[in-house]
Amino acid sequence: MLNRSIPPPIRQVSALRLPHAEVLQLRNGIPLYRMHYPDQEIFKIEVMFFAGRLEETQRASSKVTARMLREGAGQLNTAAIAEHFDYYGASVGTPASLDNSSVVLYGLRKHLPEVLPLFAQIILEPTFPQQELDTYIRAVVHDAQVELDKIEVQAYRKITELIFGAEHPYGYNSYPADYQALDRSTLDAYYQRWFTPANACIIASGCIDDDALRQIDELLGQFSRSAMPKPVYPAPAPAPVLRFDQQHDGSLQTAIRLGRRLFNRHHPDYTAFFVLNTILGGYFGSRLMTNIREKKGYTYNIYSSVDTLRHDGYFYIATEVNNDKAAATLRQINSEIRKLRESLVSEQELEMVRNYILGMLLNGLDGPMNSSDMLKSFVMDQLPPESFGQMLDVVLNITPQKIQETAQQYLQTEDLWTVCVGDLPAKGRKRKPA
Question: Is residue 11 in some structural domain?
Fold first, then answer.
């Protein structure tokens, strides 16, 4: 009989491997990464383009171009496209980030012949109908007007602007006027310039047999378009490190953001800093959460994050607290950072964090969908597959001394911007120019 009062044993996660992806090539040169799961009935095909903010000539055009791809293709309008995919239980998404744009198809393998042709048409023959664009812009402008009144949105926008510069591709903020300035000719020009075979790659996972490969090559291997020279990444133009307070009358809370420019995943200290960040504020049992939420009761949520980009990266801490607790919260945040610089992490705490990270990686490798996302993160950051093993090796063998050295190098208080947005006490309104 199973004794449910006895918990299962905890075992060390050690044998983690990024699933093997067969690297193929379509007839037009697009690389295709196949992760074949023959016992699965589902598939996921993601066509990714290195098309983001760096490639823009007009603000917000990368995001809106990706979003509008599925709103019209060939002779079909958005309703006909949606109805076709719904009939076969498939779905299409067009996610976009600061660096990349994707078109992704999910469905059942048995319906691939019915849904793949329209998926390819979305990629090859988008029409960017003006009526649908007008509808989308009205919606996004309305949403932006609502979001821009939120203190947490204002604080996040300000910290990224301070880190990279207000005119930098990674630092600028989109406003309603930026969306209203777009028209279909702008989107079509962006599409023609950057949605090219030389700027694309494909990850196909799930039941991707040889017949599925043949269909993909027939439909997506046919198009050709001249490649454009890639733009040069501009140097960030950060503001001097400062404390920035923004008054928001009537706000019940103050949004706090601390941050600094960091590096991308190619940097040799990336994984060590990732572990350090997890200890500080990267999971529910982190030091910031334990102190500021559980012990002090200042906030419901506080976290820190390492956001990596193709050419750069940044670190930030985020929370919202009652207005009268903002100063005390900042003192506690700085105290936790100072402890990491001055004292060694215990082996017990490091082991807890190590197990958390390994469990997170294990979950990221569970099944064709998650494995596809894990592989995508390496492909789009232009990292070789063996870098997964290198990252794992650092996590398994990192020492408290290395954690402390990393904190001493990258978590100096004088390197952090501090942004507070809320109904601030009069004495706290020491605003400095950004």
Answer: no
What span, in angstroms and rounded, lies between the C-alpha atoms of 257 and 302? 10
CA 60, CA 178: separation in Å to the nearest integer? 7
Are residues 162 and 27 located together in one domain of the fold?
Answer: yes
Q: What is the pLDDT of residue 432?
A: 44
Residue 16 confidence (pLDDT): 82
89 DSSP 8-state letter: T
Query: Could you tell me the two tokens for 170?
Result: 């990674």
| Helix (H) and strand (E) counts in the chain | 15, 13
In a domain, 235, yes or no: no
Whether residue 335 lies inside any domain: the answer is: yes
Residues 6+ apart with CB under 8 A from 297: none
Asked whether residue 364 falls in the same domain as residue 414, the answer is yes
Residues 6+ apart with CB under 8 A from 26: 32, 197, 202, 216, 217, 220, 221
Helix ranges (DSSP H) in 165-205: 176-180, 184-194
Q: Of the candidates 279, 406, 296, 300, which has an alpha carbon nearest to the alpha carbon of residue 350?
A: 279
| Cβ atoms of residues 159 and 257 within 8 Å | yes
Report the C-alpha gap between 370 and 24 in whole angstroms: 21
Q: Is the dihedral of CA 247, 248, 252, 258 positive or negative?
A: negative
132 and 71 Cβ atoms separated by less than 8 Å: yes
| Closest residue by Cα to residue 258 from 288, 233, 283, 278 | 288
The DSSP secondary structure of 277-314, one letter per residue, reads: HIIIIISTTSHHIIIIIIIS---S-EEEEEEE-SS-EE
Question: How far apart are alpha carbons 422 and 390 in whole angstroms?
Answer: 43
> What average pLDDT does range 365-375 have in this prediction?
91
Looking at this protein, which amino acid is placed at residue 55?
Answer: E
Ramachandran region of residue 60, left (φ > 0), alpha (ψ -120 to 50) or beta?
A: left
Residues 277 and 375 occupy one common structural domain? yes
Element (H, E) at 162: helix 151-164
Confidence of residue 433 (pLDDT cuts 50, 70, 90): very low
* 29-77 pLDDT, tens digit each: 999 999 999 999 999 999 999 999 999 999 999 999 999 999 999 999 9
pLDDT band with cut points at 50, 70 and 90 for residue 427: low
C-beta neighbour count of 348 within 10 angstroms = 7
My answer on whether 305 and 396 are in the same domain is yes
Average model confidence (pLDDT) across the chain: 94
In 322-426, where does DSSP find H-type helix? 326-342, 347-364, 367-380, 387-397, 400-410
Residue 50's closest CA among 19, 96, 107, 4? 96
